Automatic annotation (TrEMBL):
This is Uncharacterized protein. Keywords: Membrane, Transmembrane, Transmembrane helix. The keyword Transmembrane applies. It comes from the Bacteria. The lineage of its organism: Bacteria, Pseudomonadati, Pseudomonadota, Alphaproteobacteria, Caulobacterales.
Amino acid sequence: MPRTTPTRKGKRFLPDLAEPFRSILLILVIVPPGVIGIGALCIGLLFAAEGMGRSLTFEEAFNGVLAVLMALFFLPLCHAGTYRWFWHIEKKRQAGHFLSGAAMPDAFSEPTEPPPAVPISLGQRTVYALLYLAAIGLLLFVYLPLGHQAVLQGFIARFSSGRASAGSLATLLTAWLPLLGGMAVVMLALEGDMKKIRSGLLDPTETLRLQGRVEWLGAFVTAFAMTSLLCFMFGAMIARYLG
């Protein structure tokens, strides 16, 4: 429901259309340059491939550009937003919000504050950087070649009985398996940290550091799964409608 604003006499209420107009304006400002930029990158990639004597179709170039953009830009942006949301939920939990029986809010359905400044050691930063390199490399290896999309779709078509089951299997393979598998690894790796946090015997700085590591890794796995799903969806649409 749009918000309403009272008139001077206080008898009538008019819808506040500032937010819808702001969203439309944002779309108009971002989408056209983004589409033009992606198109230019695809054309540039086609010319570069031709100059190197390689045969590259527009579909392959389009999929390649989208996969690179998703891996290099969407993944860190999604990770930052998810990390902020995870800290928002953690703060509500620490405040006892869920002890009163309140339901968990839908993802990204509430305004959030910036996450706390968490102390991070040099070794931890190195591990984070290596995780990013591994995640980006895996995304590009799986989704950059358009032929890999054909392999995935062939596997899904073989083991599904219809469009609905094919969509469920695709989501399972590209999103739920990375998410659940990654979360299982994180929980096992950080089991000791969680026990230390729950003990309440650590000083606040160390507790914040360990909690920050838990939230960072959980958000990272979630962002990777979301990026993987979107990469697959874009590639599947390109292969289906442009191939």
